[in-house]
Design a protein that fits this description.
- By secondary structure, this protein is mainly α.
- It has one domain: Rhodopsin 7-helix transmembrane proteins (Rhopdopsin 7-helix transmembrane proteins).
- About 80% of the residues lie in helices and about 5% in strands.
- The chain is built from eleven helices and three strands.
- Strands 2-1-3 form a three-stranded mixed β-sheet.
- Helix 2 runs antiparallel to helix 3 and helix 4 packs antiparallel against helix 6.
């Protein structure tokens, strides 16, 4: 009898999984995006196309400049090249679909396509979060222990810190996807965003998304607090060290070097905290869209501009490469 009942329970369980898979396999999402503002479709397309072009050229250009200029072969620029790579990948995951939806009537995206977009976007968001923390630690070592900088920030340590950032981000993405896939999705659903962002996806689930929302809230809060703790601790020691410097020239040089990094951190973390560490309400979806534009489209463009326009070493390297190419 137990064997028979066990078989029945297994059959029912199998039927339940099959039904859920069948519901999910037939799901189609429609990205609402900015369709509520039809008169803005063409201007937004031109604006975002320009931003994406600048993003691609800026980030790839930054990587090329760092690789070609021997003067920039330092830990600071090693991390910056990876930040540029992350920004390029992140923008490429999101922006092309955004541009497509601004000029076509059919804004559908498959369930698999939506999940994959969220998966890769999550990888690059978390990686950038910890890459900025790693760069803060690098500045701490450079300012507080300048004589031991090259020894402390060895090539092995640099690669380990970068690998740890990527590894943790991939783990987080798999965890988020796992809990998202435990939800049931059915029919055609409208996603109230231009990107497959977690809250927008689970909001259209046919089952209770409480656990999935709690998981991403906990992980997002942990990632924010841990990375910000590293950043704040690093800059507290940097400020203490700078205030002990006898000359104003030395202080200015340190602050000018750190200014670009602090600008990026302030913009990036302010938006991430608003999006993932503050509960979303139905009345705040427009704010979510605007914030999503900033951290998916604007920030990847701003980072190379901030670091190139405010960085003397980068500007000198660009001039040198241009002069050498013209002379040849």
């Amino acid at each position: 009898m137990d064997t028979k009942c066990g078989g029945i329970r297994r059959w029912r369980c199998g039927m339940g999984i099959s039904i859920q898979e069948n519901k999910t396999s037939g799901v189609t999402f429609i990205l609402v995006g900015f369709s509520d503002y039809p008169y803005l479709q063409v201007p937004l397309f031109l604006l975002f196309l320009t931003i994406y072009t600048v993003t691609v050229l800026g980030n790839l250009g930054m990587i090329v400049i760092i690789r070609l200029s021997p003067k920039l072969h330092t830990p600071m620029y090693f991390f910056l090249s990876h930040l540029s790579f992350v920004d390029f990948c992140y923008s490429t995951v999101v922006t092309p679909k955004l541009l497509e939806n601004l000029i076509v009537e059919d804004r559908r995206i498959s369930f698999t396509g939506c999940v994959m977009q969220f998966f890769f976007a999550c990888i690059f968001v978390v990686t950038e979060t910890f890459m900025l923390a790693v760069m803060a630690y690098d500045r701490f070592v450079a300012v507080c222990n300048p004589l031991l900088y090259t020894v402390a920030m060895s090539q092995k340590l640099c690669w380990s810190l970068v690998a740890a950032s990527y590894t943790w981000s991939i783990m987080c993405s798999f965890i988020f996807i796992y809990f998202m896939l435990t939800l049931v999705f059915c029919g055609t659903k409208f996603i109230n965003n231009f990107v497959c962002e977690h809250d927008a996806i689970v909001a259209v689930s046919c089952s209770d998304p409480y656990i999935s929302q709690k998981v991403i809230f906990i992980f997002a809060t942990f990632n924010e607090l841990s990375s910000l703790m590293i950043i704040l601790t690093s800059y507290v020691f940097i400020v203490i060290t700078v205030m002990k410097m006898p000359t104003t020239g030395g202080r200015y040089k340190v602050f000018s070097t750190c200014a670009s990094h602090l600008t990026t951190i302030t913009i990036y973390h302010s938006i991430i905290i608003c999006l993932y560490c503050v509960p979303t309400t139905k009345s705040s979806w427009l704010l979510v869209k605007v914030a999503s534009v900033f951290y998916t489209v604007i920030i990847p463009m701003l980072n190379p501009l901030i670091y190139s326009l405010r960085n003397k070493d980068v500007k000198d390297a660009v001039k040198k490469l241009m002069c050498s190419s013209l002379s040849s």
